[in-house]
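Help! Submission page says 'invalid entity' but I think these are all valid:
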Amino acid sequence: MTRLFNLVDAFSQVLSRIAQFVTVVLVISMIYEVVARYVFGAPTIWAFDISYMCTGTLFVLGAAHALKQDAHVRIDFLAQKMPVGLRRKIEGFVFILLVSPIFAALSKFAIERAWRAWETSEVESVSPWAPLMWPFFAILAIGLVSLTLQQIVHGLRVLRGDEDQPFKLEA
Amino acid sequence: MTIAALMFPALFVLVLAGIPIAFSLAIVSAAAGLAKFGAFAPAQLYGAFYSASTNFILAAIPMFVLMGAILERSGIAERLFRVMQIWMTRLPGGLAVATIAMGAVFAAAAGVVGAVEVMIGMMAIPAMQRGGYRNSQIAGTICAGGSLGTMIPPSVIAVMYASLAQMSVGELLAGMMLPGLLMVGLFIVYLIIQGVVAPPQPSADVREPELPLIEKLHITITSLLPICALIFAVLGSLLAGIASPTEAASVGAVGATLLSIFYRRFSLPMLIESLKITVRISAMILLIVAAGTMFMGTFAANGGARMIRSFVEAAGLGDTGMIIFFLLIVLLLGFVLDWTANVLIAVPLFTPFIRSAGIDPVWFGTMMIIVIQTSYLTPPMASSIFYLKSIAPPDMTYGQMCRGVVPFILLQLLTLLAVALFPALSTWLPGQIVGF
């Protein structure tokens, strides 16, 4: 069980590494656009698509690892006054029975969406660059799947009391 | 409509039970979506998720965060704090003023809820304690300085607000400029008066040896000027309408990297650490954006907007009454939600009324952002205090923190009043800048 949990953690971590790389790509492509437009007077046709795709990618791929690090903001000044056992139960059941099924449904839809884009070779319709859309849809799907897995693992861990302080708040 | 009415109480229960805000929003939206769309709910929710993850303007957020992270991780921020200390130790309350000034300068990293605060807090708490400041004063100064990130451009809140209200980002940032400076000015005047009336009592003589003037100037020119140049480059290109927020943010991120190279502080581990912070914080913010978009989508589908409209109409509030009512809601939401969720919920809800009543959207936006900042500082549910607690020394109590922020809350309300009575404070500058 623990090994399975660690596998999910590792998957999230790899995705967040990719997200870090994508951040660099985002900055470089935007600064390239700035230089191309203002220095050479030749704006690119892909900067717009690249910027939103990078942003979407870095956030979806980073979300699971952020959960692992308990970086998603919560307001816990009331919850901190609850008995630890009760708080564990609330957190665990909410994550397993409510949060993860919702994200599982989203993941399923995201996978189908990516599959449809792949089958029809869908392209971005509003962009002059008209990139193929399935890679971006696939990234969203992968990110959602890893987030769902991490939610299940988080819920189980909290219920089992694996981590000494599952509710530490990162600044 | 019943479902729409139940959505907020359900959200508050989940948030107060300690569930992360993004997931609380997702749970409530999924329940409301199921009630309205049945089997089509996932498609509806995914649509909202997709639109949030493909928003062009939000691409500015990770890059502004990266800029802040690099400036902090490379030690440039600390260097700047030292320079400010050098110049301001002579001033009554000088250390406190330097802390506020740091908050104003590092507003850039504002998206990082509390990160500015934690950063300046870690530098300023030891220095101020040594300087003999009272704990409540230290706490108030740091919370207030940290909260300035919402008001001083390039504020990530303003980027998000403008993208939701379909306004020009540059226009809103320009509108917030004078009120933001006014607020900083009020803070500084208050701290100086405090420093004169009740000067801090250093336990021993800790005054640093006076540096020769030439030395001082040298440090200042090499530390202060480059950072100011960076900030002016980012803000200037944004406000002049030359660059989009995304482009300006990329200039900021690259500029911060160049600065760190210039100071010989650049290293691969530093860059990777900054990227880690950036991904973690951007994922946190944007997941709330995605979930908040779902929330507002299902809220509208269940008749939420109609509910608000009939309420506003039935209450027969005039324009002024409506503005006060909206700002009160924002203040209350701010106690329970963080700023991201607050903006996401409040802006789409109120913008139609503001527009149809012919109220200047920049003016209203400025006031709303001041209120969000105030709710961030107001006990008992002040996120700024929670962040401070995570870094405060053990001898600093919760009570001291709450007492410390009170004067700053009053000064913020004074700023709000000034903007409310003199709309020109926020509407004059945007009109002066070419490009709008």
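Support: the input was valid. A stray whitespace character was the problem, and the output above is from the cleaned input. Chain B touches chain A through 67 residues (CB under 8 Å).
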